[in-house]
Design a protein that fits this description.
Layout (H helix, E strand, L loop, with lengths): L3 E2 L4 H10 L2 E4 L5 H10 L7 E4 L9 E3 L3 E5 L4 H6 L7 H7 L5 H6 L2 H7 L6 H7 L3 E5 L4 E4 H4 E3 L2 E2 L6 E8 L4 E8 L10 E10 L2 E10 L6 E2 L1 H7 L29 H20 L1
Parallel strand pairs: 1-3, 2-3
Antiparallel strand pairs: 4-5, 5-10, 6-7, 6-10, 8-9, 11-12, 12-13, 13-14
Length: 279
């Protein structure tokens, strides 16, 4: 029999985290299927549960002086229902494609990041948004998403810590977008995906953030391409994309696609995304 904890304050949740080896659950759309799979393969043990859904401070999207704070309990459906500016376009587009309606209603943005799947649809968008993770624990800290992801399904979250929110900074005049490729349009794991945020000042790109997912153990930004786009007219951005800009990617061959196909797909998706953002 496992223990089930559902505290109503962050302090109580952290106290449990300090003394017990627990699985922290928000929406549960990743952790429950994973547990079922382990049991099916003969793994009888499972952790006690720490359900954080009753902690009021973890709900809602709050606009701050610096940007926005997304609580750990904000779901994909909640994100889509919020009144957010165009910089959020990519993450909102991803929110419409993550699983079916049931998953979107229960699954959380932060939970998708913590699962740290290479094919997590939210992750490239959070990189493009330059988001950071607010972590509560013995020493509270704010960690950029790029540093939070440490490897395949691995994060920088320590045993006594709980990720409580995402922080997204403002970028005036920016808009975001998202493109993914799968074997079908809906309810699909990505073969490749790209996310981007562009800001335009006086007819020229003044800031560019581009990220690729499902093409390596972790999603990653493309700093060389981002630098090449500064000062370029938006309508000319797609023509700037070169295969060399994707050299850092390490896609694999698997049942969904070959590594070469993934790399070629990412190149095409990037160009399509830049055309969309320039429109």
């Amino acid at each position: 029999m496992i223990a089930y904890h559902r505290p109503t304050s962050l302090e109580a949740a952290l106290a449990i985290r300090r003394v017990a080896d627990v699985a922290v659950i928000a929406g549960g759309t990743d952790i429950y299927p994973a547990a079922a799979t382990r049991r099916a393969w003969g793994e009888p043990t499972h952790k006690d549960v720490l359900d954080i859904s009753a902690i009021a401070d973890l709900h809602g999207i709050v606009e701050t002086a610096a940007g926005w704070r997304i609580g750990a309990m904000v779901t994909w459906t909640g994100l889509r229902a919020a009144a957010l500016p165009p910089i959020w376009g990519g993450l909102c587009a991803a929110a419409a494609e993550v699983g079916g309606a049931q998953v979107q209603n229960r699954g959380t943005i932060l939970g998708n990041l913590i699962t740290a799947s290479p094919a997590g649809d939210g992750i490239p968008n959070l990189l493009a948004l330059d988001a950071s993770v607010e972590i509560a624990g013995p020493v509270p800290r704010l960690v950029p998403v790029a540093q939070f992801l440490t490897g395949y399904r691995a994060t920088a979250l320590a045993a006594e810590e709980i990720a409580v929110a995402l922080h997204v900074p403002r970028l005036p005049g920016a808009r975001g977008g998202f493109r993914k490729l799968g074997a079908r349009h809906y309810l699909v794991i990505s073969i490749a995906m790209v996310a981007g945020v562009l800001a335009v000042t006086e007819g020229r790109i003044s800031a560019a953030r581009l990220a690729v997912g499902a093409c390596g153990p972790v999603a990653q930004r493309l700093p060389a391409l981002e630098a090449a786009l500064i000062g370029v007219a938006p309508g000319e951005a797609a023509a700037c994309v070169r295969p060399a800009h994707l050299e850092a990617l390490t896609p694999i061959d698997d049942i969904r696609a070959s590594a070469a196909y993934r790399r070629a797909a990412a190149l095409t998706l990037l160009r399509d995304l830049l055309v969309e953002l320039a429109a």
